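help with this.
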Amino acid sequence: MNQRIGYARVSTEDQHLHLQRDALQQAGCSLIYEEAASGKSTVRPELKQCRKALRSGDTLVVWRLDRLGRSLSDLVQIVADLERGGISFESLAEKIETGSAAGKLVFHVFAALAEFERNLIRERTRAGLAAARARGRRGGRKPKLGEAQVKEIRALLRDPEIQVADVARRYGVSRTTLYKHVGVVKPRHP
């Protein structure tokens, strides 16, 4: 019996799979594999399990092309592997299915466009970050330790009886964070 098996992926734990899950269920998927993993990550255990579950005659269904491949070449490789196994591929948003020659052509065109779109987004993000830096703004996480805390820690670590691990615990940070912020590497006591 030929199955329609879905694969849904979000990039971060903050995002939700509801939209993808609903679309895949409406498309008749009897089984849906879901995971939260960056598209760039090579470690995607649910995708691996999904591919193991697929048999000749089955169809792998995704909500959008970029949910499956890390890059255009990765996407093309996955679809080629599926085709070698007699498995069709379908992307709902782009209305692509590789069960026909025309569908295969459309797949390759849309895969290239999806890669192009991701590259544009990446370029815009980099340009935006550069513009923000030029205006004196910094992105990223706030430092774990403030200037006053760094001064206190330096004073504490001057005492040979005080262990770095104890200071790290006291301030709720790792030893590595202390070394990074304070720049002190204290010799270990025997």
